[in-house]
Amino acid sequence: MNKFLILPVMVMAMSCGSNDEVASGTFDDGEGGKGSYSISGDGDDSETVIKSGDGEVRIATGSKAVSELPMGIELYPGADIQSSMTGMGDGKSGAMIVFKSSDDQDDVIAFYKDQMKDKGIEVQTEVKAGDMQMIGGERADGEGLNISVIKDDEGGVTTTLLAGGNN
């Protein structure tokens, strides 16, 4: 599935411009298989969908970004989603969501520690390094979650949430 992750960058660059522009097409995956892509929106409010025999990848920004998180994890209250990406293939799925908040880094980490505990995800990794804090863990079924929170220059934080596991 990784071999077609380069395509989203090219496709999103082509989509910048009009809010009404929609592009779609097909491509050869380089291994004899075919895939398709579709783009809607513009660079600030867009969705790109790429499908092949290996699975599907969705990349979204603005109002088209994914707000439902994997494993029933809740989005941090008041979070401003910057971008999201989800993918499915080979019996596995994953998601990445980047959001901003004006709240304190410790508050965001505490919120997700509570979420992880409520969902049966054991915190196995906890790192504090400079302006970054990260927690990560996994459930017994192999579903994993990693949250990285970085302080920004405006007094808030930017959070990257990565989740994945079996379909």
Task: Provide a descriptive summary of the structure in words.
The chain has 167 residues and is mostly beta strands. It has two helices and ten strands, in the order αββββββαββββ. Strand 3 (45-52) and strand 4 form a beta hairpin.
Short description:
This protein has 167 residues and is mainly beta. It is built from two helices and ten strands, in the order αββββββαββββ.
Give the secondary structure arrangement, pairings included.
Elements: H1 6-15, E1 22-28, E2 34-42, E3 45-52, E4 55-61, E5 80-89, E6 92-101, H2 105-118, E7 122-129, E8 132-138, E9 144-151, E10 157-166
Antiparallel strand pairs: 1-2, 2-3, 3-4, 4-5, 5-6, 6-10, 7-8, 8-9, 9-10
Helices and strands: which structural class?
mainly beta
Which overall shape is indicated by the principal axes computed on the Cα atoms?
globular
What is the overall number of helices?
2
As residue ranges, the low-confidence spans are: 1-19
**Strand portion, in percent?**
over 45%
Q: Tell me the distance between the termini.
A: 15 Å
What Rg, in angstroms, do the CA atoms define? 17 Å
Helical content band: 10-25%
How confident is the prediction overall: mean pLDDT?
81
Describe the main β-sheet briefly. Answer: 10 strands, antiparallel
Tell me the quaternary state.
single chain
Number of strands: 10
List SSEs in N-to-C order. Answer: HEEEEEEHEEEE
Strand order of the largest sheet: 1-2-3-4-5-6-10-9-8-7
